[in-house]
Amino acid sequence: xxxxxxxxxxxxxxxxxxxxxxxxxxxxxxxxxxxxxxxxxxxxxxxxxxxxxxxxxxxxxxxxxxxxxxxxxxxxxxxxxxxxxxxxxxxxxxxxxxxxxxxxxxxxxxxxxxxxxxxxxxxxxxxxxxxxxxxxxxxxxxxxxxxxxxxxxxxxxxxxxxxxxxxxxxxxxxxxxxxxxxxxxxxxxxxxxxxxxxxxxxxxxxxxxxxxxxxxxxxxxxxxxxxxxxxxxxxxxxxxxxxxxxxxxxxxxxxxxxxxxxxxxxxxxxxxxxxxxxxxxxxxxxxxxxxxxxxxxxxxxxxxxxxxxxxxxxxxxxxxxxxxxxxxxxxxxxxxxxxxxxxxxxxxxxxxxxxxxxxxxxxxxxxxxxxxxxxxxxxxxxxxxxxxxxxxxxxxxxxxxxxxxx
Length: 406
Known about the structure:
With about 400 residues, the protein is an alpha+beta fold.
């Protein structure tokens, strides 16, 4: 079974995570998929296979070399995004993409067009896997899982390629920010690892946002509107006043690269009470702290005008892994060399988001992120070029070889 066959099999599992259940894994489909993968790894006769009650699956491809070699890990997550349905995914292969619109769903007039997604044209002439327009695809991160397992199978079939112990892990709930929370770094037992969870071919990431979530609760007072003068306190209006006090251009739709932002992700409100939920993001730690302080400042301003109206909760989610990875440059150099040896040009980019690797790096497992090949994650226009998955598989093999040689 090749990487494409594996991927097409894996996307059949509905593994959307759900931040509201409070369980690990957060949905039963994730454990079902993990149990299936456990069976696959046992058929491959890997060593030290373990699947814990939280859905964390680990295994080892034993070393085939006499000398001591660092143990390196490869990690991918089993869940898909809650942003769109992952039920009954129906992928299809577009052979030798011709550069024109791809009709995903004629009945619903859903079209994947290079006019809206110009990155499609980079893959003209390649075979692409697309959705039927009604679900996401699941390349984030089932492409990564397929690539890791395919690379391990290739190493088993080619014992002439020398390698040390290779550890692999598949975890739940990355998409809701909990993938690393119950990850047992000590049990995994690696000197460093790579998450196969990046986007386009060539991407190598070891910088990510510092991240926090902020919840502001506005208390109001409801009075009959006909008799409300000097009595009513409309929490919806006050919440709106707060929202427009934040910089208009520092939002996701106006930022790129290393630029941080404030992102309003949810509003729940009535006259009596309104709650705004924001995520705060910045690559620079000092700017990140200033962004949180800006929330505190604006809440004080609101409370000066409307005493005791607003209360603020801020919770840090994760930090920029750069400070943990950068002191170990060989981790990045090996990945870059592996890409070049596989015929891929490394593209070092900052992650405009989070990754399990960030939290794992702060738990003692330095963990950069390597491309899995997919694009337009979390929605109906997601697609993955088949050559990108094949190259990602080759990069994993090359990393294992280079580590053994060094």
